[in-house]
């Protein structure tokens, strides 16, 4: 998975539809999430599309599997995951993921339907990180 910094460098050079294509490409690059993990327990609430996030790893290195049934939403999921993937749980728990995603200006680039679940996705990732970090 590309780093958020590398994705942003490419994203800044693109405009309009090219940015959509990049998001779709990022979604395709997500590690496959096995179908049995796509359950009600891993479903992110509040998203217009279906989004699943499954945490793995340990306090030293969190790892997330994620998927969506919508291409652009899956790309947004990939952005969120790239901000936190394979980092220590304590770092993710303390991280301002929303601020890390601000340079992408998703609220102005995409419809509110596509971004409405992002805060819930971030909250789920941070809650898991905090739980693992304090365990």
From TrEMBL:
What region holds the Fe-S metabolism associated domain? 14-127
Q: Which InterPro entries match?
A: Fe-S_metab-assoc_dom (IPR003808)
Q: Name one Pfam family in it.
A: SufE
Please indicate which superkingdom the organism of origin belongs to.
Answer: Bacteria
What protein family does this chain belong to?
A: Belongs to the SufE family.
State what protein this is by name. Answer: SufE family protein
Task: Say which species the protein is native to.
Answer: Alteraurantiacibacter aquimixticola
